[in-house]
Structure formats: C-alpha cells, structure tokens
Amino acid sequence: MPGRPVPSRRTVLRTAALTPVAALGAAACSPGDDGAAPARPTAPVELGAEGEVAKGATKLYPDGNVVVSRAEDGTLKAFSTVCTHAGCPIKKLEGTKLVCPCHGSEFDARTGEVLHAPATAPLIELPVRVEQGRIVASPGA
User: Among 14, 22, 37, 82, which is most exposed with the fewest C-beta within 10 angstroms?
Assistant: First the structure.
C-alpha cells in the first residue's frame, strides 16, 4: 500500500521477542482485539516431534507463530507467521498457503513469499533444527 511503511525484519523480530513461550497463546491478537502485534520468545522454541512434518508437508505451529515445511530431500524451513503487512498472527494454513485474518494477505508457507497483497514483504525466515528428535526454531537475529 503506497505510503505505508513495511516493518523491517529487525522490527518484526524485536516485537516478536517480547513474550515468553507460555504466554504466546494469550498474547496473540485476532480479529476484534486490540490489534497488538503478537510476540515470540527470545530463546529457541521447541515446536514438536520431528515426525510431525513429513517430506513435502507443511505444519503450522500457531502457539509459536511459526510454520515449518520439509522439502522432499528432508531439509526443514521455518518462517514467522507474523504478517509483514500489519503484524497480525496468521493462524490459518490452507495446504501450503497461509492466510492472514486481518487484511487477507496470503503467503507461501514453503518459501515465505507473498502470494496476495496487501503484504509486500515476505515472511521472516527463522533458523530451524532438530535436537533430540524435536523441531526447534530460533527467533533469528
């Protein structure tokens, strides 16, 4: 949208780093509340068992504001599900498409790329790894 600044990666991550993991569900905004941007923890977040994301699949972890996909070669990718348009948490995954409830932006959950405006910036990619059979995402830098 012309004239509207797009939040920088640093701004999104700084905002996301304000709330501990236990409070994520309560802190996340949804249509009709105060519109505050959701927060993510400052420390790495354990999302679930490695087997939860099969090859070629994508899984949304709404309490962590993270989506994880696994390529056919087994590599994992993770993205913040905080919309880059207005900071709303995305809680809807349709196949491999994330749909923001606030203004209808759509993103490819495998690449983070914008599929439908008003968002113009891709989702923030997060470092992701497997530790002791568990998927762990980091808030990034």
Answer: 22
Q: What is the CATH number of the domain that holds 133?
A: 2.102.10.10
Number of domains in the chain: 1
Phi, psi angles (nearest 5°) of residue 110: -90, -25
Tokens of 76: 């994992």
* Tens-digit pLDDT profile for residues 35-46: 444 444 468 889
Write down the pLDDT at residue 139. Answer: 77
Q: Provide the token pair at 135.
A: 């998927």
Query: In which domain, by residue range, is 107 found?
Result: 9-137
State the pTM of this model.
0.70
Measured in whole angstroms, the distance separating CA 133 from the mean position of its chain's CA atoms is: 21
Asked whether residue 3 is domain-assigned, the answer is no
Instruction: Enter the tokens of residue 85.
Output: 């348009």
